[in-house]
Each structure stands twice: as structure tokens, then as C-alpha cells.
Design a protein that fits this description.
The chain has 287 residues and is α+β, with helices and mostly antiparallel strands. Helix content is 31%, strand content 20%. The chain has two domains: 163 residues, 2-Layer Sandwich (Beta Polymerase, domain 2), CATH 3.30.460; 38 residues, no CATH class.
């Protein structure tokens, strides 16, 4: 067998540089992959929902939320040390895959708009503790959005909570619910009522009975919380006297609301109704 030098077979000699070679040295073009984090806070055009996660891939969003959860939990525990009457009641570092798929496919929530890949609940013993927790969270985290259903509850089940969506350093965002202690305890015991109503709605069946049971459960729990704190009881109970921030009022059309801002000079107030509307009214029209 005759051995020929490579150059006689038509191969060009290659001069190799000393040391390890990069992909660019071998002729590969680099590709940069980035998350579209700047879109966080924008509205998804298809669903009308706010984008709160860094990607439209549910697996990536879940991995990021799970990765951020130890730091999230530690920071919550730290800020709660100085707030009497507030405790970290529950945390969840990953959403159940079946429920996540149900939200995305069954409820029309794009992966980037799902809020609770990671979540925590804080139980509070008083409205003052709730206010202190909200202020502390706003100091310690970038807050993407917040929703106040603490006094009246959400429009469907009347579940009481003050919810915040907070952003972590890796761009994932985590959900936080601040809940009256009696409401949280009641729902931990009777969560099946909420699930019955939700499952019925998803299946296209009437959920009236289960929804009514959930409302009654939440109203009764909030009444216990209010009685313990000296707040007038009963769903939509109204504080008589001066119109001030935080007082419950009734609008001229009979709707119940809570005052969120009072202008002392223009004699107007901004209120939030129990069905989630923000309304500006004249103070004399409040009762």
C-alpha cells in the first residue's frame, strides 16, 4: 500500500491556532436568544390579558418561577418579621400541570399571561396588617399589578384578597395573595365548593348552586374577620359618617363601593365598586 501526502490528494493544508477553538473559529455564526422581557406589562392582543411572564412558553415560565421561589419565599419571610398579625400561610413553587393546561387551553389564558406559576398566600389578622404588608411588598419588589378585593371579594365567588404580581430578578413573576385569616382558613377547609363551581362552568353546566355556596362561605368568614376587628358586619355593610379613604359607601344607583380617594377641595371621590368598577362621584351623592 502506497501512502500519499494529503496535498497530493487535493486537500488544502489548514493552519491551526494554538489553544481551544471557538464555534466562530470553525465557521459557525453566533445566534443570540433573548426573552422579550420588555413586553411584560403590555396587553396580549388576542386575549386582552396583561403579559406578566417573560416568554410565551409555559415550560420555560414554570422553570423560571420555580427557580425564583426560594428567594421569593425568603424575602417574604424577612419583610413579615416586622409586621404583627401577618404570617406566610402557604407557598407553591409549581402549578399542577393539569390545571395549567386547563387555564391555557380551556380558559384562553396565553402562557405569558398566567400569573401563578409560583404563588404565595399571606394571612392577616386585621385591615391594618394588610395595609402594612402591601406597603412592605411595594418597597421590596417591583410590582407589575395589583387588585383589591379585600373588602368585598371578587365579583363571582366573593373571595377576599389583595393580590399583587411581583417580578423576580430572573424576569419571572410570582403571585401574592393577602387574605383575611378567617377567609383563608375557611377556603382551605371548603376548597371543593370553589372547584365544583369552576368545573361546572368549564363543562358548560350551571354552577349557580356551587357558586352560591362559595359566596355564602366567603361572606360568613369575612363577617367573622370584621366582627373581630370591630368593622360593621354583613356583605356591603356601610360606615356612617364622614366620607374618608377606606369607608364603605352606597352610590346613588344602589351599588356598594369602597372609597379609594377623596378630594377635599373639588368635593369629589373615587370609589371602587364591588364588581370591580372605578367610578368618580360627587361626595354629596354618596350615602
Amino acid at each position: 500500500m502506497v501512502i500519499h501526502p494529503l496535498h497530493t490528494l487535493g486537500f488544502e493544508p489548514i493552519a491551526l491556532q494554538p489553544g481551544p477553538l471557538s464555534l466562530a473559529d470553525l465557521g459557525f455564526e453566533p445566534v443570540t436568544v433573548t426573552f422579550d422581557a420588555h413586553s411584560i406589562g403590555a396587553v396580549d392582543p388576542a386575549s386582552g390579558r396583561t403579559i406578566v411572564q417573560p416568554t410565551d412558553n409555559s415550560a420555560i415560565n414554570q422553570a423560571l418561577a420555580t427557580e425564583a421561589m426560594p428567594s421569593y419565599t425568603a424575602r417574604l419571610e424577612e419583610l413579615l418579621r416586622d409586621i404583627p398579625g401577618a404570617t406566610l400561610a402557604a407557598t407553591r413553587d409549581a402549578k399542577k400541570p393539569a390545571r395549567l393546561a386547563e387555564k391555557i387551553a380551556g380558559e384562553g389564558q396565553p402562557a405569558g399571561t398566567v400569573s401563578d406559576y409560583g404563588a404565595a398566600q399571606i394571612a392577616v389578622d386585621s385591615p391594618q396588617a394588610k395595609d402594612a404588608v402591601v406597603a412592605a411588598v411595594e418597597r421590596h419588589f417591583p410590582v407589575l399589578r395589583q387588585q383589591d378585593h379585600f373588602a368585598f371579594g371578587d365579583p363571582v365567588y366573593r373571595y377576599r384578597s389583595f393580590s399583587l404580581q411581583v417580578q423576580m430578578p430572573n424576569d419571572a413573576s410570582e403571585e401574592l395573595q393577602i387574605v383575611p385569616r378567617e377567609v383563608l382558613e375557611a377556603n382551605q377547609q371548603e376548597h371543593h365548593r370553589y372547584k365544583q363551581a369552576r368545573n361546572a362552568e368549564l363543562a358548560g353546566r350551571t354552577a349557580a348552586q356551587a357558586t352560591a355556596a362559595a359566596r355564602a362561605l366567603n361572606d360568613a368568614a369575612m363577617d367573622r374577620f370584621n366582627r373581630r376587628n370591630g368593622v360593621p358586619t354583613g356583605h356591603g355593610a356601610i360606615v356612617k359618617g364622614a366620607v374618608v379613604k377606606g369607608s364603605r359607601v352606597r352610590l346613588a344607583d344602589g351599588a356598594l363601593a369602597r372609597v379609594v380617594y377623596v378630594d377635599p377641595n373639588m368635593r369629589i371621590a373615587r370609589v371602587r365598586t364591588e364588581d370591580g368598577r372605578n367610578v368618580t362621584v360627587r361626595r354629596k351623592d354618596l350615602r
